[in-house]
Design a protein that fits this description.
By secondary structure, the chain is an alpha/beta fold. The protein has two domains: 252 residues, Alpha-Beta Complex (Quinone Oxidoreductase, Chain A, domain 1); 176 residues, NAD(P)-binding Rossmann-like Domain (Rossmann fold, 3-Layer(aba) Sandwich). The chain is built from 15 helices and 16 strands. The strands form three sheets. Strands 3, 5, 6, 7, 8, 15 and 16 form a seven-stranded mixed β-sheet that branches. A six-stranded parallel β-sheet has the order 11-10-9-12-13-14, sandwiched between helices. Helix 12 links the parallel strand 13 and strand 14. GO terms for molecular function: oxidoreductase activity; zinc ion binding. This is Glutathione-dependent formaldehyde dehydrogenase. It comes from Streptomyces coelicoflavus.
């Protein structure tokens, strides 16, 4: 079968690989109909998340159709249409039963202390092949796979595999509640979804901080207030917008690949910390293989974390869902301590939130489709990776159509195009428009 494969730092390709097989009674084989590229995938190519094995299939977001199940899978059958949550969990250990699926005791071959398992990641994350392929083996399928009604189409469902659960989790970590003023640092896919999730959880005001023009435009289309960190100091701007107090909650959706402002007052402040950021970067990505402006690790690994701590009000809460691998050793603890902040962070417990999000989409309360800005296919996957990596205009969220057989085509979900809870009724491009843009 065809799959997107990690070949080395700065090197990925579309390769022929063996089809997966059932290895355990609780496995399922899923024929992938739709996959997507996530910012986390870029960490592996940039070098900010080490431990990848050559030949690893990438990707941890997918929608598909069950092809085969092991003898222990009693709740699914071939032909069922499903969304695949990004992280893997057994469902029976104490952590899973408490809802902490990302900290499952049994999923990681490294043992109970080894941490989160997800598809298409390094050996420390379970060493599982990913979902940017024609077929995938899904361990603990009886727990992980979430059935989809035909009222939820592939364009909606693919965003429920990782992006929306992570954003929902981020709002929960930040303790967003009724009337809160919330800042979201980062307007990539997760930051965009966090606007809707914070609003659904009661946020009164939402301020989004980023430096990429079209991403700020998308945030404004969702009626968030925006701050361009290349035009103004984001901390000062947020304080000014909140009467000098700061926001109640911050959702930090950037992580280790944060970039310094290229100009403006914030660039001057970052320049004064260039030596410190340089040390952090060498620590975060000791090995890298950039290709010009592509596959370049972030040049200010803790900048988003610093801004989050600085722009939240005293006694506020910061929820961090931007990825920080273990080798990152720096955080502004002193400033957070002196402000009595609550800091919460970690990998999303996807399986805890996916069923509820599927119900929200099926009922018309949430329509995630406006976040899909490019719809391509696996033949163009490598170029799509490159465009997404460089944050080119229009490449905020890239979805890959893998197979048309068994899909519910984009735009055919009952609530598709409504923009409910996202763009407040302003739909994104139609499936035909998105496909045409992807091929252009």
């Amino acid at each position: 079968m065809k799959a997107v494969v990690w070949k080395g730092l700065g090197d990925i390709g579309l390769e022929d690989v063996p089809e997966p097989e059932i290895k355990d009674p609780y496995d399922a084989i899923v024929r992938i109909t739709t996959s997507a590229i996530c910012g986390t995938d870029l960490h592996f190519v940039r070098g900010t998340m080490p431990g990848m094995q050559e030949g690893r299939i990438l990707g941890h977001e997918a929608v598909g159709v069950v092809e085969e199940v092991g003898s222990g899978v009693r709740n699914l059958r071939p032909g069922d249409r499903v969304v695949v949550p990004s992280t893997v969990a057994c469902g029976v250990c104490s952590y899973c039963r408490a809802g902490y699926y990302a900290q499952c005791d049994n999923a990681n071959p490294g043992g109970r202390l080894a941490g989160t398992v997800f598809f298409g990641g390094p050996q420390a994350a379970g060493g599982l092949d990913g979902l940017q392929a024609e077929y995938a083996r899904v361990p603990f399928a009886h727990v992980g796979l979430v059935p989809l009604p035909d009222t939820v189409d592939d364009a909606q469902a693919i965003l429920l595999s990782d992006i929306y659960p992570t954003s929902w989790f981020g709002a929960r970590l930040a303790e967003v509640g009724d009337g809160d003023t919330v800042a979201i640092v980062g307007a990539g896919p997760v930051g965009q979804a966090a606007i809707a999730c914070a609003r659904l959880q009661g946020a009164g005001r939402i301020i989004v901080v980023d430096g990429v023009g079209d991403r700020l435009d998308m945030a404004r289309s969702q009626h968030a207030e925006t701050v361009d960190f290349n035009a103004e100091d984001p901390v000062e701007a947020v304080r000014e917008l909140t009467g000098g107090i700061g926001v109640d909650r911050v959702i930090e959706a950037v992580g280790v690949d944060a970039q310094k402002p290229s100009h403006g007052p914030a660039a001057d402040a970052a320049a004064a910390q260039a030596e410190e950021f340089g040390h952090e970067r060498s620590e975060a990505a000791p090995e890298q293989n950039p290709d010009g402006a592509t596959w370049v690790p972030g040049d200010a690994p803790t900048l988003a974390a610093r801004w989050a701590v600085q722009m939240v009000a005293k006694a506020g809460t910061v929820g961090t869902i931007g990825v920080y691998p273990p080798q990152v050793q720096h955080y502004p603890f002193g400033e957070a301590f002196m402000k009595n902040l609550t800091l919460r962070m970690g990998n999303c417990n996807h399986r805890r939130y996916v069923p509820h999000l599927v119900s929200l989409v099926a009922s018309g309360s949430l329509d995630p489709t406006p976040l899909v800005t490019r719809w391509g296919d696996t033949r163009n996957a490598v170029e799509a990776y490159r465009c997404f990596d460089r944050r080119e205009a229009g490449w905020t969220k890239v979805v890959l159509g893998v197979s048309e057989d068994g899909t519910v085509a984009p735009g055919l979900g009952e609530a598709a195009g409504t923009g409910a809870a996202t763009t407040a009724g302003s739909p994104g491009p139609t499936a035909a428009e998105a496909t045409q843009e992807a091929g252009s």
